[in-house]
Design a protein that fits this description.
This protein is α+β, with helices and mostly antiparallel strands and about 375 residues long. Helices cover about 35% and strands about 20% of the residues.
Length: about 375
């Protein structure tokens, strides 16, 4: 598949299972015709270890992959309802970024990421996934319903990448660019005609434009109270016990964030990327499809040894400007060319090759996010 490049050359509290088909007592779930299975109840990095150890089976195994998905600021905005042949992804609307995410774009993209991991994990359990997005409408709590049918068990291509995929926030190698075959493989992850991937050479004028808007937007986020408060929600919502989150600590974290964005995120990227949607940037269905694409892209990158990190500073400012002023000066200065007229940028990231591995982000245990 031809890649979309832009450059001089043309270069994202415990629950009880009691749904139909399952019976719950404490943290134990029973399929109507199957054995008792305990919901994993350890958080932090334990959910990553659980998946990698091949524990669990069936829909519980699939759900244990869903919680390892990418999500905004590690807010983990999901809940799940499970039974033997069905998984529902529920929007936990209390876990949002307030004014930093006025359209809940990042929120629903996180749910889309969880949906993608669900579909990647299912085949290994002999389950074929049939997906219904927003079956009760865009404002209802149910973000997606996945119905499972029996099939021959065979792992998905991205199966082994689930436990290896982590956001790499460190420096990338300055002397290595993203190879053309990798670019083509990443672009091939875009399977929805209204959701595409655009890759930008970080060394060219378009890459400098991208990083310039990111840095400008970083300062804007910190200067606008509503945006800054939303960022601080992301910092504090899952902060480990004992973490200092007073005003002074947050101010220090903000200063470090700007400096790391300048010197590391922008300064060492080999490529930048945008996920583009054809349609309104307020559409939750497009948000979820974009989340699925980001998860697929990151899983594919992981298999190829390519590191990635979301960079949504300017996208968040575009959301803020369009929600408060009806138009965005930042969007107007994105140099994307006429081929992208009618498309909206709704997710940004960087890519490159890193010298080391990234640490796993902590997760809430499955027992905390499976509900009746």
């Amino acid at each position: 598949m031809t890649a979309h490049w832009i450059s001089k050359r043309a270069f994202v509290a415990g629950g009880i299972v009691a749904a139909a088909g399952l019976r719950g007592v404490g943290n134990v779930a029973r399929a109507e015709s199957g054995p008792v299975s305990a919901l994993p109840d350890k958080g932090g990095t334990a959910p990553w270890d659980y998946w990698q150890s091949n524990e669990g089976s069936g829909v519980l195994r699939v759900a244990s992959a869903a919680i390892l998905s990418a999500n905004p600021y590690n807010t983990q905005p999901w809940l799940f309802r499970l039974n033997a042949n069905r998984l529902e992804i529920i929007a936990n609307k209390t876990r949002n970024l307030a004014n930093l995410d006025p359209y809940r774009r990042e929120f629903y993209m996180g749910l889309g990421c969880a949906l993608e991991n669900t579909c990647v994990a299912a085949p290994s359990q002999g389950l074929a996934a049939k997906v219904s997005l927003l079956p009760n409408g865009p404002d209802a709590d149910t973000a997606a319903v996945v119905e499972f049918e029996p099939t021959v068990a065979a792992p998905h291509r991205h199966h082994n990448a689930i436990s290896l995929r982590h956001t790499h926030r460190g420096p990338y190698q300055l002397d290595r660019q993203v190879e053309s075959d990798v670019v083509d493989a990443l672009s091939a992850q875009a399977t929805n005609p209204d959701v595409k991937l655009l890759l930008i050479d970080a060394r060219g004028s378009e890459g400098k434009n991208f990083s310039g808007l990111v840095m400008e937007s970083s300062q804007r986020i910190l200067s606008v109270p509503g945006l800054r408060d939303g960022r601080h929600i992301g910092i504090t919502i899952n902060a480990p016990s004992g973490t200092d989150t007073n005003d002074q600590a947050l101010e220090k974290a903000d200063a470090a964030w700007v400096e790391m964005t300048r010197t590391v995120a922008c300064g060492t990227a080999a490529a930048f990327g945008l996920i583009m949607v054809r349609g309104p940037r307020t559409d939750h269905r497009l948000h979820m499809e974009a989340g699925r694409l980001w998860q697929r892209t990151h899983l594919e990158a992981t298999l190829r040894g390519l590191a990635m990190q979301p960079m949504n500073h300017h996208i968040e400012v575009i959301d803020y400007e369009t929600s408060t002023e009806s138009k965005s000066s930042v969007a107007a200065r994105l140099n994307l060319g006429t081929n992208w007229t009618g498309w909206e940028p709704i997710f940004g990231f960087r890519a490159g090759y890193a010298g080391g591995t990234a640490p796993a982000s902590g997760r809430r245990p499955l027992s905390a996010v499976v509900i009746a």
